[in-house]
Amino acid sequence: MSRPTHADRILALLNKQPGLDDDQISHILGIHPRQQVNQICRRLESQGLLRREPGPSGKIVNHPGPGNPKRPLEPARISTPPNPRRSPKPVVRSGDESAFLEGDPASTLVVLPCSAAKVRNTLRSEQGPSILDHLPQPLAQELALARARNRSRAAVDESITIPAWRRYRGTLYESAGQALADAVGDWHILILSGGYGLVLAREPIGWYEAILKPSWWPGRILERALVAYAQKNGLTRVRAFVASSSPYRRIVNRVPWAQAGIRDVLLIMPKASRGALVKAPRAQGEALAAFLNGRLGPGWLSSDGLPLEFIHP
197 pairs with which residues across the strands? Predict the structure, then answer.
């Protein structure tokens, strides 16, 4: 059984101590940043699970709502395909589906694809962290060597480096907009990159011209790097925003997440449709923004009316 979500913990706390404001909930439960509590509580209010109203001091306080079962919610459960060789099936969930889609910056790994469109002309290079700092030294050296081997064929130009989330300017990144900008400092966000293999969203990278080719990264180095990063940072969940037919999905599917103690892995993918070259990445970006803001839930549709599939690999 997966551990209780933040929504579960907030509802359980309010059943015992109604009338707490968002700052008090954040302090008692250790949920940071405080804005995450605000987002979760607003979503729970929309579901009728809690009630928000001005308190004696004028701050908004939270009470159990009419739809609150007056007990901690059961964590969402998932059923996995009985035969791992068969194609994955959509996740079957019971209980609070929105809670299942919920994320926590401290314990959730968000995986994104890179994009072909990139910002090329910037004024100056920027400094920042690297995923190499989060990997065991032998694995970090292996990834660094693989990057060096691929440098020429990816046409990497590092005369100016900027954070990866700003370098990529495809439809997904444009659609995620401010939500992604606000999240990169708090969330664990990794990007599968054609030129660099795997990077932190905040990692400064140069310009390059290459799609992600798993064959360029032998020995399943990207998969091993994802596991190592998750282990080092004590992460317990993975939310991967990938296309259904892409090398990004194949890599995420091949990661031995259980080695990092992770069994809660969810692929979030737009359903196939006409005009997918534009609609699919736009849906990914909008879904990412909704997820980071605590608003991704059952029945979500993109601005083009595109629904999502949620797959447990």
Answer: 193
Domains and CATH numbers, the chain: 6-64 (1.10.10.10), 106-311 (no CATH)
Helix, strand counts (H, E) of the chain: 10, 13
pLDDT tens, residue by residue, 88-110: 444 433 334 444 566 778 899 99
Strand order, beta sheet including 197-200: 197-200, 188-193, 108-113, 237-241, 264-270, 308-311
d(CA 50, CA 121): 48
Q: What is the pLDDT of residues 125-183, one digit of tens each?
A: 898 999 999 999 999 999 999 999 999 999 999 999 999 999 999 999 999 999 999 99
**Contact between residue 308 and residue 285 where contact means Cβ atoms under 8 Å apart:** no
Q: What is the largest CA-CA distance in the chain?
A: 64
Q: Which residues contact 86 (CB under 8 A, 6 or more apart)?
A: none
